[in-house]
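Async update (no meeting this week)

Hi team, since we skipped the sync, here's where things stand on the single-chain job. The sequence we agreed to prioritize is pasted below, unchanged from the tracker. I ran it this morning and attached the output directly underneath so nobody has to dig for it. Comments welcome in thread, and please keep replies under the output.
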Amino acid sequence: AGSSGLAVAKNLQAAGIPFQVLERNDDVGGIWYYGTPTSSVYDSARLISSKTLTQYPDYPMPASYPPYPGRVQAWQYLRNYAQHFQLYPHIRFHTIVQEARPVDGDAAWEITFADGQRCRYRGLVIANGHNWDPNRPGPAIPGQFDGQLLHSAQYKTPDVLRDRRVLVVGGGNSGCDIAVEAAQAAAVTFHSTRRGYHYLPKFLLGRPIDQCGEALLRWRFPLWLRRAISRLAVRITLGPAGRVGLPDPDHRLFETHPIINSQLYYYLAHGQILPKPDLRQLCGPEVLFADGSRETVDVIVMATGFKISFPFIDQQYLNWDHDHPQLYLHIFHPHRENLFVAGMIQPDSGQWGLVDYQARLIARVIQLQEAGHPAADRFWRRARADQPDLSGGIRYLPSHRHLLEVEHFSYRERLQSLIAELA
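Output:
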């Protein structure tokens, strides 16, 4: 019952399809339900995408919300969404799914709960998210560390960093946010990244940066022109990365997941964040970096992302290959017409609205299947044969963080087109 499961529930209900949501916690919200064992957000977390490009299309965020809502507002929005669409009666709380397996000749799914109970369903939609199971580099970094080692999923408040020598590892949005927070609390803050990145400001001319990019996409500007305009905007607002000690990017703009942060440059320019190259070895109280430099460190925060993880279902049922399920549009299993995955995308903008369109498409396909409509057969033939490019023409760097990357604008248009086609 996180942001993806709620979108699926709302759309199944709207389509008249009976369903039940299984949720391990005592309320909705997923990772945004702060303080629960499966919540990976920290106290100061805010949406990286603006509220306009994050919200569900049929349930706008309140006008009183700031352009980038904080974690409390994000959670309350999800709770209000569930209440507004009367989803709570359909949610079975305090329910941990131990195993999901196909039965009855693949015509149904048997779900085993942690308490040993079992229940059968005609179909299964997996919406457990992919930002909760920490990716710990562990064996990839040799040596032993004498201080405190945390993953970003364990980091909650800056108290653990106060007056200590802190190393933040990872150049993603969480890594940059935590480095900025450490700069205000720690004695010294080092920030280790494996390469140079393109950083975007949160605002341009008073508007959230993603809304500016959305305008360029609506106007159908070609990729090269959008890159040129964005580079100019970054140069005017932030300036060249080298001026604050950051390495130059080794790739073109948009070829990595966007990093949106206006404060990182500020603290780098004031010497409160010290950039470092890739971490190579742990040496007791010290750490060794790729350039041969060493630093004494008390706390390491590994902002190294999350694993794509479905612990309750065997990979053989997910068409698994190359570290993640191979699904049509990241949603539809090519050979199991009663298995769907919602929210298994990493868009370059807000996600919740995109998942709503995923859920609309799932619900429509189920409706057509139930009615025995030939359009359902045509859709599944396409799902088995088609491998569409979801990059919007962008060549993402080949790395784990881009396994699920989609260009949000063209992906949304593709979903909308399919929904209209099946109407």
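Quick observations from my side:
The first strand starts at residue 21 and ends at 22.
The chain has a mean pLDDT of 96.
Reply here if anything looks off.
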